[in-house]
């Protein structure tokens, strides 16, 4: 999970969502009260679940470690094959706009000639 969260694409997308969430809460008092209530409920459920799940996690720890190692290797390979994962969302959007603009310009040139 940490490795996925540290991918540039994922971390920049999470940052954008977090900024939008905070801005929305700040701008709309009714939405803020709903979000605050949801956050409070989520914190209490998370706390209660953590204490119940801990004994199971302790038992499964060797299996979780093996799965984590396997997933980590897979993510490394995926990162090599998809360099897009190492770019921030803003860069991907900019590159996509440039590519589309270039293709549209090429199509216009082809039609006009």
TrEMBL record:
<protein>
    <submittedName>
        <fullName>PLIN3 protein</fullName>
    </submittedName>
</protein>
<dbReference type="GO" id="GO:0019915">
    <property type="term" value="P:lipid storage"/>
</dbReference>
<dbReference type="GO" id="GO:0005829">
    <property type="term" value="C:cytosol"/>
</dbReference>
<dbReference type="Pfam" id="PF03036">
    <property type="entry name" value="Perilipin"/>
</dbReference>
<keyword id="KW-0551">Lipid droplet</keyword>
<dbReference type="GO" id="GO:0005811">
    <property type="term" value="C:lipid droplet"/>
</dbReference>
<comment type="similarity">
    <text>Belongs to the perilipin family.</text>
</comment>
<dbReference type="GO" id="GO:0010890">
    <property type="term" value="P:positive regulation of triglyceride storage"/>
</dbReference>
<dbReference type="InterPro" id="IPR004279">
    <property type="entry name" value="Perilipin"/>
</dbReference>
């Amino acid at each position: 999970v940490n490795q996925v969260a540290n991918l540039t694409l994922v971390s920049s997308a999470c940052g954008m969502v977090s900024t939008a969430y905070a801005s929305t809460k700040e701008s709309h008092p009714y939405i803020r009260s709903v979000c605050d209530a949801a956050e409070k409920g989520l914190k209490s459920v998370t706390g209660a679940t953590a204490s119940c799940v801990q004994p199971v996690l302790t038992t499964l720890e060797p299996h979780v470690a093996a799965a984590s190692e396997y997933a980590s290797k897979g993510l490394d390979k995926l990162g090599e094959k998809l360099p897009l994962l190492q770019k921030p969302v803003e860069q991907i959007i900019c590159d996509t706009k440039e590519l589309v603009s270039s293709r549209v310009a090429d199509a216009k040139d082809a039609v006009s000639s």
